[in-house]
């Protein structure tokens, strides 16, 4: 028998990264690992679902990094289709429900990892559960959507309505376009991509128009209408209805923390579990949490946020597994970097938007520049817009947003590093970034933006 038992709740990015890292550091004699996953899959990339649905990725299984069998070969006792329904913190045990057999049982733990992820927001509107209305949170969701598309008539126009214009919404708009649908995106906000300022979101909107995707801003869905067969036919907003053969929901997610809340564990203002730097749940030395179910410290704003991204979930898992396995790791926080695309338009952001800066009492200047991803004379040079936000007086970088083509997205990583290092925009102007005509103009767009922002900081005085 192992010296101690680790129980993991949730078998995807954060949970199985934690389990795998702990196993790398501690053999089965020292640590028994029992992991519970209520779904059909483990260690899969939800991030790849839009590209699988759109046809860029051929098969569902291409998105699976590690199967349950592969985890079991590494001495992880992974129990699939088994949901943890109760957590007894004082008694150090969890109650599990085997969804296949209906059997319930308690399992004790010495150490616990909560990696229950996030659940999609589903407003309680009429028709939300109708046939032809699909989320894209899990591989099962992706498969159901593909099956639903296959079942549609092939003649005549096929119309898809995507509800939500965040990154999942715009990625799914692209996927449906590639599937040959006429696509309408219904966006409650002022512009698509609310993670950008509205002036940059407008560029995304214009580009989507150019791609043939209709985006309707300020459109709050009120109901989903169905035909006699119970399948979706239209989506209604306050203003009008939109014909739909299929509806894809990308309205956002909330941390899945019901279990942890019921057990009395601490959650923050955004509903995510609160952890320390080692990813231990605050006040509980033997319980860790990571991934979409936790809040993370925003290093620029100085307060916690809920950001559901796989990049964080994997890092959290690595840190948790290291600490449980007897090593050492911390997750200091994030600067809020995210990238996505709609067809060839790349969208990137890091740090604070203007409203984020205002919300935490920072005064700032902004500068926006137009440039290209390659030397202007080099074939294929395409436009790119960079918006930079810096603190008034100090010139400290606060945020960057980039919308453009041809290498726009990953340019934001330079800004993410500058934010992490606490650089000023003046310091950024001297960054030794690579240059050759196929990759960048002599002055990289990020440097051009930094120079203009320096001028704005100086112009604004103190
Ligand atoms: C369409 C889409 C595109 C995305 N694209 C990107 C991207 O480009 N870049 C990026 O960084 N991120 C992206 N993400 C986000 C990323 O997939 C998530 O942040 C990541 O999966 C979070 O991992 P997690 O382990 O915290 O949670 P999840 O992946 O949600 O895993 C949690 C698991 O816990 C299980 N579970 C929950 N409660 C219980 C319970 N009580 N008992 C047993 N099991 C339980 C769930 O079934 C689930 O499998 C995307 C997400 C989606 C849906």
UniProtKB/TrEMBL annotation:
Keyword Ribosomal protein assigned: no
UniProt KW keywords: FAD, Flavoprotein, Oxidoreductase, Redox-active center
Pyridine nucleotide-disulphide oxidoreductase dimerisation domain sequence ranges: 340-442
InterPro entries hit by this protein: FAD-bd_OxRdtase (IPR050260), FAD/NAD-bd_sf (IPR036188), FAD/NAD-binding_dom (IPR023753), FAD/NAD-linked_Rdtase_dimer_sf (IPR016156), Pyr_nucl-diS_OxRdtase_dimer (IPR004099)
Key word Ribosomal protein present: no
Residues spanning the signal sequence: none
Domain of life: Bacteria
Pfam families according to UniProt: Pyr_redox_2, Pyr_redox_dim
Name of the protein: Flavoprotein oxidoreductase
Organism: Streptomyces rubiginosohelvolus
């Amino acid at each position: 028998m192992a010296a101690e038992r680790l129980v993991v709740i949730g078998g995807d990015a954060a949970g199985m990264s934690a389990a795998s890292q702990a196993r790398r550091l501690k053999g089965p004699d020292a640590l028994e690992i029992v992991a519970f996953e209520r779904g059909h899959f483990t260690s899969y990339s939800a991030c790849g679902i839009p590209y699988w649905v759109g046809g860029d990725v051929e098969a569902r299984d291409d998105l699976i990094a590690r199967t349950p069998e592969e985890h079991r070969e590494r001495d992880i006792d992974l129990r699939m289709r088994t949901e943890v329904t109760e957590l007894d913190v004082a008694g150090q045990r969890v109650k599990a429900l085997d969804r296949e057999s209906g059997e319930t049982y308690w399992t004790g733990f010495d150490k616990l990892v909560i990696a229950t992820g996030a659940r999609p927001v589903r407003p309680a509107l009429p028709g939300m559960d109708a046939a032809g209305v699909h989320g894209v949170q899990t591989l099962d969701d992706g498969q159901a959507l593909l099956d639903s598309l296959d079942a549609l008539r092939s003649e005549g126009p096929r119309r898809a309505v995507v509800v939500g214009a965040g990154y999942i919404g715009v990625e799914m708009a692209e996927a449906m376009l590639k599937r040959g649908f006429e696509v309408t995106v219904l966006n409650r906000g002022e512009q698509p991509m609310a993670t950008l300022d509205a002036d940059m979101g407008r560029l995304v909107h214009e580009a989507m128009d150019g791609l043939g995707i209709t985006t309707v801003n300020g459109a709050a869905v009120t109901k989903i209408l169905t035909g006699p067969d119970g399948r979706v036919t239209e989506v209604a907003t306050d203003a009008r209805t939109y014909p739909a053969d299929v509806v894809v929901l990308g309205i956002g997610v909330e941390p899945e923390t019901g279990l942890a809340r019921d057990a009395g564990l601490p959650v923050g203002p955004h509903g995510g579990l609160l952890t320390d730097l080692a990813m231990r749940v605050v006040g509980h030395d033997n319980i860790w949490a990571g991934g979409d179910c936790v809040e993370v410290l925003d290093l620029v704003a100085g307060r916690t946020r809920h950001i559901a991204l796989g990049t964080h979930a994997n890092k959290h898992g690595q840190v948790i597994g290291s600490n449980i396995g007897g090593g050492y790791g911390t997750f200091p926080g994030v600067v809020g970097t995210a990238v996505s695309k709609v067809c060839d338009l790349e969208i990137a952001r890091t740090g604070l938007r203007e409203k984020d800066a205002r919300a935490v009492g920072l005064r700032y200047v902004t500068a926006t520049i137009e440039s290209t991803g390659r030397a202007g004379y080099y074939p294929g040079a395409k436009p790119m817009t960079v918006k930079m936000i810096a603190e008034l007086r100090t010139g400290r970088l606060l945020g960057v947003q980039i919308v453009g083509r041809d290498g726009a997205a990953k340019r934001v990583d330079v800004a993410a590093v500058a934010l992490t290092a606490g650089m000023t925009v003046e310091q950024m102007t001297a960054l030794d970034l690579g240059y050759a005509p196929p990759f960048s103009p002599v002055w990289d767009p990020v440097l051009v933006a930094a120079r203009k922002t320096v001028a704005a900081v100086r112009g604004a005085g103190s």
